[in-house]
Design brief:
By secondary structure, this protein is an alpha/beta fold. Helix content is 36%, strand content 20%. It has an eight-stranded parallel barrel with strand order 2-3-4-7-8-9-10-11, surrounded by four helices. Strand 3, helix 3 and strand 4 form a beta-alpha-beta unit.
Length: 311
Amino acid sequence: MKIAATLIMVLGACVLFGSCGKKDEKGCLTGVFLADLPKSYAIEKFSVDYGKRPALILTFLDWGALPDENVVRDVYDRGSILVVTWEPWRAKEKKAIDYDALLAGREDEYIRTFALRMKFIGKTVFLRFAHEMNGDWYPWSGQKIGGEKYQRLFRYVRKIFDEVHAENVRWVFSINAENVPPENAYSGCYPGDRFVDYIGLDGYNWGTAQSWSRWKSFKDIFSGVYGDVVRRYKKPMIISEFSSASAGGDKALWIEDALQAMRQMPVVKGFILFNVDKEADWRFPPNIPSGQKLKSGLANPYFQETPKGSL
């Protein structure tokens, strides 16, 4: 009886702390958004400026576009991995495509062409399809089309990729760190474990760059949603978009704390830092304290240039 009780206690500890059997590889892939069409020199400059080659390079494509062959070449020639955010709309006009037509099969030719282009990359590529559906700013928002239709869209597109055996594609269900509005819950849009490989988390510290915003730490933004996703799903995560504005607080301290916090989030297997001046100044210039703190934080071997295990 004592042996059995001891065994039960040990097994319980294994479940709680993940300490039995094969351990997950520890570490987090370094990633960045540099430009809509990232070039090899920009990837190399990041490596020089911050002392670590970015493992993940983020791009955005709207509906009707295909991955740029030059971008694909430059990313993989530098030993990095492409992360494609595929947006089902006409981005310039901010106009939705016809989602009912897609589900009726009238977009199959384009989807299949896109899937084959991704397959022919021949190496791992991450795909964020219809991201941030739990916000209210995109036409594919769960609030606008309903969670059930979003699920059907995600599954339909994934099915075509499976039909052409695009097995190198890793599917990212990428959510905003906050449900906007609160009733627009990401969980209502989740297409199911069979269709998702990774869960992405997007969040920004807007500081005082906007009239409605205030300074928030990395933990303020991500700790709640991280815990909720861990409880709901047994999937690895990527911080698929994050950064801090420059106005309203100490940006150097912010990125230092962010990288420290990430090391306490073992389910997060990679991050993608926005390092551009876009809606706000998300940059971490290497010659000022915020960029210097980014470089010193990335020097920790926890932040990787190449994955230790399989993706």
